[in-house]
Amino acid sequence: MPKVTLLNLKGEKLKDIKLNDEVFGIEPNNQTIYDAVVRKGASLRQGTHAVKDRSEVSGGGIKPWRQKGTGRARQGSIRAPHWYHGGVVFGPNTNRNYEKKQNRKESRLALRSALSQKVANKEVIVVDKFEVKDNKTKTFTKVLETLKIEGKALIVVKELNENLILASRNLSNIKLIESHEINTYDVLNYKTIVITEEAVKMLEEVLK
């Protein structure tokens, strides 16, 4: 059963807490992690790319010359694909669906695997609570400095409040989420995870 130190926002040790083996101490399943990350990446694709086919480009309403007797190859339209300014054949369009599926069991296994990896690498910081007295970015940054957090960090709390949202929104290397929003992609994408004790208990309840 993995152990982590519970800290307060001053960086002081309060006690050691044991994490649930089924959530934070499993053997990581790399295939489900890979599938979860690919699925998340696919869902972010907007699919707004498109080209015009011969029915959409301008011009080419009539046959450019008669079928026979001119000595030239027969042509039906000046907007055929082989003509300059002609329509594109088999180009990308917005009809394509990039969505990938992963069942709930695999998705949860991927999240448990990612969390277990982070705990094993000592990249998880558990705090008794995470709050700031005002909505200033400077105040939020001081808390991060006290906890010795550098680089990208994912802050996971049970419930967001206005001060936290406003104080953190200008920090591009910080992502603030509620515990039910946590996903495999974010866990892997951020160097450090800061999670409250309440959020840990909620995750253990849902994922075990």
User: Could you tell me the number of beta strands?
Assistant: 6
Low-confidence stretches: none
Query: Structural class of the helix and strand makeup?
Result: alpha/beta
Strand content: 5-15%
- What's the helical proportion of residues? 25-40%
Specify Rg, calculated over alpha carbons. 27 Å
CATH topology of the largest domain: Ribosomal Protein L4, Chain: A
The name of the CATH architecture of the largest domain is 3-Layer(aba) Sandwich
Q: Would you list the SSEs in sequence order as H and E?
A: EEHHHEHEHEHEH
Biggest sheet statistics: 6 strands, mixed
Kindly report how far apart the N and C termini lie.
Answer: 13 Å
The coarse overall form would be: elongated
* Mean pLDDT figure: 92
Which homologous superfamily in CATH is the superfamily of the largest domain?
Ribosomal protein L4/L1
How many helical stretches? 7
User: How many structural domains?
Assistant: 2
- Strands of the biggest beta sheet: in what spatial order? 2-1-3-6-4-5
For the record, what CATH class of the largest domain applies?
Answer: Alpha Beta
